[in-house]
Amino acid sequence: MTRDITVGQFLPGQSLLHRLDPRTKIVLTLVFIIQVFVSKSALSLCFLIVLLGVLIACSHVPAKKVFRAVRPMIPVIIFTALINIFYVSGNPVFHYSFIRITDQGLFIGFTLFVRLTALIAGCSLITYTTSLNQLAAGLEQLLAPLKRFHFPVNELSMTLSITLRFLPTIAEELDRIIDAQKARGADLSSANLYKKVHAYFPIILPLFMSAFRRAFELTNAIECRCYQGGIGRTKMNVLRLSRLDYQAIVFFCVAFGLSIAFNLYFPTFF
Amino acid sequence: MAIIELRDISFRYGTGTPFEKQALQDICLSVEHGAFIGIIGHTGSGKSTLIRHFNGLLRPDSGQVLVNNEDIWKHPKQIRSIRFQIGLVFQYPETQIFADTVARDIAYGPKNMGLDQETINQRVREALSFVGLDDSYLDRNPFRLSGGEMRRVAIAGVMAMRPAILVLDEPTAGLDPEGCRNLFDHLEQYRRKTNTAIVMVSHSMEEIAEHVQRVLVLDKGRIVLEGSVPSVFAHAGILNQFGLDVPQITKALLGLKKKGYPVDTSAVTVDQAENELLRLFEGKDDE
Ligand SMILES: Nc1ncnc2c1ncn2[C@@H]1O[C@H](COP(=O)(O)OP(=O)(O)O)[C@@H](O)[C@H]1O
Ligand SMILES: [Mg+2]
Question: By residue range, what is the domain housing residue B120?
Answer without folding.
Answer: 2-246
